[in-house]
Amino acid sequence: MYLIGLTGGIASGKSTVAKRFAEHGAAVIDADQLARAAVAPGTDALAHIADIFGPEVIAEDGSLDRARLGSIVFGNPTALSVLNNVVHPAVRALSSAAIAAAERSDPEAVVVYDVPLLVEASVGHPFDLIVVVHAEAETRVRRMVELRGMPEADARRRISAQAGDADRLAVADVVIDSMGSLDETLAQVDRLWDSQLRANHRSAHSDSTVGGAP
């Protein structure tokens, strides 16, 4: 198995790159989906969140009221850190299981773990390659405003709440520059696949970790 950690700031085009990897045959694991599963009704993590932040963060159907929780932790680094200390270990357990399942299914698979918080969280998986999708902050603000209808102030707050570009680029083995057109971005993924992943994933070196001990 060849394990890729894929990350990038909000509105960087990371999901587009992940989809392209999947089109090439990679098994893609989405950390956002795992994060939702980690706090699904009946999970220990959700119960712990309710104990910490109060029953008002639980919706009538028993699910997490994300808007309500967000109003508590957004802009409050201490509360956000407390929440992350609950959610991140649960997501890591699920991601470890998903990666192991992908390897059992195909021991020579290319597995892409699409994880927005690769730098911020204690991810700790033994990545063979870290791919960072990069676009400058102003470009990402414009995308969030024009394509998602987000107020500019909210877009800037979301960017500032994530790791900075320098921190992400510092851990990158490969940078996909998404400042250009969609075709230009996809072409970079294609070149990476053809030059390195298609032929060489069997000779992986899995001795480096990012974000914490494995």
TrEMBL record:
Pfam families (UniProt xref): CoaE (PF01121)
Molecular function in Gene Ontology: ATP binding; dephospho-CoA kinase activity
Family matches, as Gene3D superfamilies: P-loop containing nucleotide triphosphate hydrolases
Pathway(s) this gene product operates in, as recorded in its UniProt entry: Cofactor biosynthesis; coenzyme A biosynthesis; CoA from (R)-pantothenate: step 5/5
SUPFAM superfamilies referenced in this protein's UniProt entry, alphabetically: P-loop containing nucleoside triphosphate hydrolases (SSF52540)
Cellular component GO terms, alphabetical: cytoplasm
Subcellular location: Cytoplasm
Annotated binding of ATP, by residue: A11, S12, G13, K14, S15, T16
Catalytic activity field: 3'-dephospho-CoA + ATP = ADP + CoA + H(+)
GO BP field: coenzyme A biosynthetic process
Keyword field: ATP-binding, Coenzyme A biosynthesis, Cytoplasm, Kinase, Nucleotide-binding, Transferase
Keyword DNA repair: no
HAMAP family cross-referenced by the UniProt entry: Dephospho_CoA_kinase (MF_00376)
Family (UniProt): Belongs to the CoaE family.
Protein name (Swiss-Prot/TrEMBL): Dephospho-CoA kinase
Species annotation: Cryobacterium zongtaii
Taxonomic lineage from the root: Bacteria, Bacillati, Actinomycetota, Actinomycetes, Micrococcales
Name of the gene encoding the protein in the UniProt record: coaE
